[in-house]
Amino acid sequence: MSRRLTMGSVATATALALVAIVPTGPSNAAPASTTDYTVVAEDGVSADAAVAAIAAAGGTVVERNDSVGVFRVSSTRTDFATRAAAADALIGAAQRKAIGYAPKLEIDAVEQENRVTAATGTARGRSGVTSMDPLDDKLWGLDMIRADESRRKQAGKKGVTVGILDTGLDASNPDLAPNFSASLSRNFAPDIVEVDGPCEVESCLDPVGTDDNGHGTHVAGTIGAAANGVGVSGVAPKVTLVELKGGQDSGYFFLEPVVNALTHAADSGLDVVNMSFYVDPWLYNCLNNPADSPQAQAEQQAIIKGMTRALTYAHLKGVTLVGALGNNHEDLGDPRTDISSPDFGAPAYPREIDNNTCWDLPVEGPFVIGVSALGPSAKKADYSNYGTEQISVAAPGGWFRDGFGTPSFRSDANMILSAYPKKVLQEEGTVDEDGNVVPAAASFVFKDCTAAGACGYYTYLQGTSMAAPHASGVAALIVSQFGHRDYQNGGLTLAPWKVEYQLNRTAAAHACPKPRLQTYTNEGRDAEFNAYCEGGKNFNGFYGYGIIDAYAAVTTRGL
């Protein structure tokens, strides 16, 4: 049923050179005579033995992640990589550098489709529902998963911690500030000038509680925006939110920051981690794709190895892992030719994807709950990936083009509304210098303030990135309802397999559409978007075990 990557599936292949060119940190910080590398230890080698081998090869360890055997190293020796590869304790080393300039990402064609294509529809209302916060009447996703009903039983507990492994978290938003833990939060992705543009602070390490991209803030709001009379409320409005900044301001997610974020989550006893991204620069990481150079193969092997180790480590430490299936409108069990990789450092080129040796990470990694995206009609959104091999459940992700033949077709309100940083909206030009929403953005950007004058900003996005946090919120409710005391880290804990089991078994089963071949011609999409739904009502490629149900998840006993 699942082609989920496991430790066993890469045991033989990872005897190859597993190294990655992972640009992290300011690229202009080191003298020209010093070169930075990422070094990966051999399986079974202790961290101290690896450090000793690095030193013997002429390198100095700058940063170490002992839990997964990944090291950041600097060296003045021109032959360091060769010497490291020859060391028995090390798999190898690769130079860490950023190539070319990539400015901050502009409008995302999928997540911000309403900015690319003008809205023409009329927003639909939510009848008969009591809102907890002023903008909750726009959150159709809460209705779909019965999160508004689940709060009467369980709204989440402060002792349950949810990690937002993303681009940051704007803790100045009055909806996020009450639930934000600064003490647990960390930034693992210092700005890279060549990728992110000029650093905002001298150290290039943005303080926690900030988000210069906006994606992470939006995800955090869906999971756990406080029900406090301002803005919106989240699926689990009383849980604790933890920033795990593993994504660059520009939106790239590289191996080392992601691995470090996952191990921190594990060591800190976090209960749930949401991952709405894929690890750059490869859409699919392949063991030995014939289209790739040896260097490119080694880089992907490193990502596979590093992510497998980190995800497994987090799972074994009690972290429930939730991932977005992706926005490439394809069956993960039968991928199309990859024409977008690498998306950083070198020009992309076409690669045929072998389903048995290539993985979309982290969602196809071990122990990750994969989530597809639905529109308000409960149809699979045209952009959402699908397939029986990795999907677990479906959740509201938004679909701008939903509602064909009705007044709501192509309306902003078909998407997901959540928190967003004022600074990013001002950079986009939708909020002016005085903090007011400009008239042209009034249908998709909102401002709401507390009586004390603290204002939060909110906007619509769509994507599997928006579906995954709905599932993460329900997972947090499950831990809140059925978890037991965590004597090691404090708060509550519940074994990840129990969380996943409860999430899956309480999801509302949903059969494939009839006919099974879903076309999106009416919505303006070509045949590439056609999607065939395999499976029965209890499990299929569009919905997995069903649409997540927060109320059933906290009221169905048996754990």
Characterise the protein shown here:
22% of the residues lie in helices and 16% in strands. By secondary structure, the protein is an alpha/beta fold. The strands form six sheets. The protein has a seven-stranded parallel sheet, with helices on both faces. A four-stranded antiparallel sheet has the order 2-3-1-4, with helices on both faces.
Summarize the structure.
With 559 residues, the chain is of the alpha/beta class. The chain contains 13 helices and 20 strands. The chain is 22% helix and 16% strand.
Q: Multimeric state of these chains? A: single chain
Q: What average pLDDT do the residues reach?
A: 90
Number of strands: 20
Strand order of the largest sheet: 6-7-5-8-10-12-13
Helix content: 10-25%
Largest sheet: 7 strands, parallel
Regions with pLDDT < 50 over 5+ consecutive residues? 9-32, 99-103
Q: Strand content of the residues, in percent?
A: 15-25%
**Anisotropy-based shape:** globular
End-to-end separation: 24 Å
What class, by secondary structure content? alpha/beta
Count of alpha/pi helices:
13
Q: What Rg is obtained from the alpha carbons, in whole angstroms?
A: 22 Å
